Amino acid sequence: xxxxxxxxxxxxxxxxxxxxxxIDGxxxxIDGxxxxIDGxxxxxxxxxxxxxxxxxxxxxxxxxxxxxxxDMQGNVRLLAEGITSVTDRMGRLEKEVKQxxxxxxxxxxxxxxxxxxxxxxxxxxxxxxxxxxxxxxxxRFGKRQDS
Length: 147
Prior knowledge:
- The protein is mostly helical and about 150 residues long.
- Helix content is about 95%, strand content about 0%.
- The longest helix has about 130 residues, at about 5-130.
- The radius of gyration is 59 Å and the shape is rod-shaped.
């Protein structure tokens, strides 16, 4: 091979090496960008993992809340049944008390009325005995003395 060809080929190889070095530099820049992108993807992945953890916690809290609500509904139902039972019982007791009071009223008021009538009759009899008989006759059948 002659010198000229050798020089030409060396120049060509030198030029190709320089192009490869430029391409290698570009690839290194691209690799650097990919490393930044990979770092960002890792951050995004970490955020998603944190969000998934929070969602799992929320799901568990929602589940516990539902259980508590169902328990509370059962307690409210029992309370409502108890209130209904007490209300019914109070209604029955109210009727019984009214009936007993009426019985007591009848036992007390009727004898008191009879006693009142008897006392009034006795007072009238006593009043007649102490008054002048002529005045009583005039009062019933005729005129009074003061008129």
